[in-house]
Amino acid sequence: MHGKCPKCEQPVLTAKISIIQASVPMGKQWKTIAFCCESCLTVLGVQIDPIAIRTDLISALKQ
Length: 63
Fold this sequence. Notes:
By secondary structure, the chain is of the alpha+beta class. Helix content is 21%, strand content 38%.
């Protein structure tokens, strides 16, 4: 059983990933990824990009 997109109600079998920025007012920005419905591109969820976080952490530790 697959979930349905809340907008177009098509089954969500795969999602498109878009790279976006997230930030707090007057504060830090993070690279994030948005999971979007492949049929209508509605954003289904957003999370901090785990690869970007790992890269930033490794760079910080090297310094």
